[in-house]
Amino acid sequence: MRTLIMTALTAAALAAAPAAGAYAADEPSRPIFYDAPAVLPAGNGAIIRTEPLSYAVDPAGLSSLAVTSTRVLYTSTDRAGERIAVSGSVIVPKAPWIGFGKRPVIGYAVGTQGMADRCAPSRMLSEGFEYEGVFIKGLLARGYAIAMTDYEGLGTAGVHTYMNRAAQGHAVLDMVRAAQKLPGSGLSGQSPVGLVGYSQGGGATASAAELAASYAPELRVLGAVAGAVPADLQAVAANLDGSLWAEFGLYGFRGLAAAYDLDLAPFLNSTGRTVMDAVEGECVTDLANHAFIRSATLTADGQSVVETMKRAPFAAMVADQRLGTIRPAMPVLVTHSMLDDTIPFAVGKSMAASWCSKGAKVRFSPNVTPLHIGGMLNNSAEQYSFLEARFAGLPMVSNCWTL
């Protein structure tokens, strides 16, 4: 969330078809690659189509000497259990794997990108700057393959269901399935799997960790790293409203409605409808457009989105996104800065404590690196040794007793 925009703004110097009956803005036509066929292939994680993936930061194509990069359209399942098409990227080092067993594949859950189709990571890699590339590079250097989803509706048809627990978890797990089926990747169903993500990606990773045993039991998920997890959307929304990064809260409100096919128009005034139109077509680099906006100025009844989310029909929808209610079957590293100014530290700690109470193997790693962006750097630094130990078959020492 705030980390993501700050990273993007620093590095850069600072559209989607609507769900049936839902309020949605128009977006420019997406590349044909992202259009799903009328009939999807059977199964989750089935490959619909692929094409080579190039990088805007590497116009000479020198990266092809080190990695094989593929854009993938694959099948997944939305919140309601309907099968959908989701896009993503698979990046595999060309150097032989020299570690234990088979080459691991990382289900990499990206942080906030925005709401517009043009923000999809698989497009940003080729058309602009994808800030997650900085962190992916370290994993590739260790010989791991990367399976990076764009999530539901980000790149493909429909509104991006931002921060929807089930949809994001499914997209992450099915991206791994698709990577393992990709011809020529050298990956297979026997490949060990790790899950990694921060902020929105931390939420998606936490969801995937909770759902893996029931949704994708065949995957050999050996560990998960979830940083700054927005496990309680109500608490996060309250922290964001009226702040410099208020648009993240609007993303969440819009994404929640999209996931439940709810028409937002009756809940918004004319200004609110105009703002939501704009938000739906923006990426993280556009967040200054709605900085410091207070959601109470956008609603039909003058109540803030935070208050609106406490009432029907939103209250049940928000409750359904709560993370920490299902025990992950694999060891999990949870990181969070005590100085996080975007996702309250207490939110991440509470989720970790809830997992511990259910008997999960959790290592909670607090830190004092400044703000949300500092926590992202800390999370990246800690994930390497954690993953290496899991892929080597070493046990993890839980510190649940500290929570």
Question: How would you explain this protein's 3D organization?
Answer:
This protein is of the alpha/beta class and 403 residues long. Helices cover 33% and strands 16% of the residues. It has a 9-stranded mixed β-sheet, with helices on both faces. The radius of gyration is 20 Å and the shape is globular. The protein starts with a helix and ends in a 12-residue tail after the last helix.
- The end-to-end distance, rounded to whole angstroms, is 25 Å
Quick one: how many beta strands? 9
Which ranges are low-confidence, i.e. pLDDT below 50, for 5 or more consecutive residues? 1-24
**Morphology call:** globular
| Radius of gyration (Å) | 20 Å
Tell me the β content.
Answer: 15-25%
- Give the strand order of the largest sheet, numbering strands 1, 2, ... along the chain: 1-2-3-5-4-6-7-8-9
How many helical elements? 12
Give the biggest sheet: 9 strands, mixed
Structural class: alpha/beta
